[in-house]
TrEMBL record, chain A:
The keyword Transmembrane helix applies. It is found in: Cell membrane. It comes from the Bacteria. GO terms for molecular function: transmembrane transporter activity. This is Sugar ABC transporter permease. It comes from Nakamurella endophytica. Coiled coil: none annotated. The keyword Plastid does not apply.
Automatic annotation (TrEMBL), chain B:
It is found in: Cell envelope. The keyword Signal applies. The keyword Signal applies. Residues 1-24 form the signal peptide. GO terms for cellular component: cell envelope. This is Ribose ABC transporter ribose-binding protein. Belongs to the bacterial solute-binding protein 2 family. InterPro entries: Peripla_BP_I, SBP_2_dom. It holds the Pfam family Peripla_BP_4. Residues 56-305 form the Periplasmic binding protein domain. It comes from the Bacteria. PANTHER family: D-ALLOSE-BINDING PERIPLASMIC PROTEIN-RELATED (PTHR46847).
Amino acid sequence: MANPVTQDHRQPAATGTAPVAHRRRFEIRSLGEVGALVVLVVVFGALNPSTFLSVGNLQKVLDQAATPLIVGVGATLVILMGCIDLSVEGVMGAAGMTFILTTLHLRGGVESPTDLGFLSFVLAVLVGAALGAVNGLIHTRLKVPSFIVTLGVWFVGLGIGIILFGTSAQPNLSDAAAQWPTRNLLGLPHSFWLAVVVAVLGVVVTRYTKLGRFAYAIGNNEDIARSNGIPVRRIKLYVFVLAGAFSGLAGILAILQLGQGTPSVGASGAAGSSTLFLTIAAVVIGGTSLAGGRGGILRTVLGVFLLTILNNGLLLAGVDPGYRSGVSGLVLILAIVAAAWPLRSRLRIVK
Amino acid sequence: MHRTSRRRLARIAAAVTAATLLLAGCSKTNASSDSGSGGGSSAAPIAKDDLVLVASVINTTNPYMASMIEGAKALSAKLGVPLEVVDSQGSSQTEISKIQAILARGKKAVVMVNTVASSDAKPIVDAVKQAGGYVTIWWNKPDNLEPWDVGNNFVAFQKYSGVESGECTGKALAESLGGKGNVVGLAGVLDSTTSQTRVAGFKNALKAYPNIKLLDLQPANWDPQLGLSVTQNLLTKYPNQIDGIWAADDAMIIGATQATKKANVYDKIKYVSDGLYPDVVSLMKQPNSPVVGETFHRGFMAASIGLYTAYLAATGKIDPSTLPHEKRDSLFKLVCATPKDFEQYTKWDNDVAGWVDTLVNAKDPWSVEPTPLVGQGPEKLPS
């Protein structure tokens, strides 16, 4: 499996010419996913022409996709290195609670004494980054597999969230704050713009910075990367910190969308399944290899939209809730098989 | 090197043998003291000093669970018996293992469990019985697991009727719409009996109103976030058609109101739900609130009634085997609260300790207002 992967990335450099490199970057395979997405939109649009394709529904899908998109950017970076970050929901809980408790909020009808304004935003992202740093440090310094470390930090983060929550009434945001994510800027919801900023940042990092290129190299083959002088441990740490910060940001956004503080804010994403499951599924469905070294942010964006639209469309089509998760799984498998069909001989994956 | 390792092995073997002997000794003394305390462990009352109260809740952040903990603490203070709170963190495994750990510590446990899932009831009841403790289960148990079949250690199963809750809020919603309009419903986790019974009650209530149309019923898993996103989707699916939203509990109606506020239709829709949580109380306090019906029942009442029933059995004040079946598989009274009268019920919230005082002074967990015993389980679904 490692061989075709390395070849994939060497080829553009070897052939050299710009157009080929450009085509390789998007790769034929992502056309399959784009096709699946288009088919979904056409089918759901035909089933409910008046609702599914309405501007209101489009805006809502974009709003619901925002949180998994932001988490997905971090998750993609981590998975590109061949690691995994399971801590996202814990980080979201800890950062989200930090945010709501330091910003203007109501608890049991009483206004909070602390209001750090924009600073609470920064503080919450820093909490996310700090938990990401814990992930990175334990993984690289103590040489514990990222799967185990981040699983632990998931529960540490949840614990921090629960302690911050304490035993008093549920903290609520003002209606104005709770409506920020769905208010529109240039016709699109704020939450989506936030996700766009993060996704663009992710694309820039993966394409044009050493951090991103080294992450690919580490995912391809860590030993070769190290012997080529790439500071593997440092890069891994930075990527985990970045992923933690993004999860923290997603936690803030999820709390804003809900208008209420809860440590389990990541446990149920807008699309009906938990944020962790949704984003990892989106990353993989998008075509980023769990083994690392292959894939990208834009693929994850595709994956998130596939899953969000699938959920939204099935509900609008009136599929019985009892059948919906089964139907959604089936449609997903069909979409992926169809998307990967032209490449089945080249992939040679039998796992 | 060979010899040292062999010597080390011998030393480990010796330590292990010693430990086993010690443990065996331990269990032997336990067994003898058990039989010494007079035949069956359930017959003899346990002295107050040997007791520990255990309140097991599903999580600690849901307002209902927070209220349960509050009630258990108030009862612990009133009785002068220490309290252990078990946070199941939404997981049956966590719940069962934490309860077992407390039972293993030796003090006789008086336990109230709000089970995460119905199937947890059996292993918990068995563990408590084996340890000689007393347990009351709240909300979830399999219908065929009855306290009188298990024995005195499973003192009682208690809950509020879900059918009654659904009927009460369904009726309030239909009435507020003048008997005509389109409504949608948000259910809890699909396989939860609490959700199923409330939904059945809701649908049953709507039968009396042929001009109320139930457009859609979707699960939102007791979760405010899902309540929000499912309602958003329903608002798109039925643009300008929804006149009323019903939810199986307040966590989800909070999410639903958040969704309608975002869509600027909050005031155009009526809401009903179960639980009268603090956040819903503040919505109802607003003039002309669109929240038109709620049920009132409280976690602190449930937890203290449950713990106190088990405590009475543990201290020999009641003998479960002589109690009528309705006091062992019980349905308690639920209040239908309206915007006009809800404040006369929420007044109890400000005096949890006072209410628990009344409960303990009455020495009877089945007759305290506003939530006396009203019937026997298991609950039947309306046909």
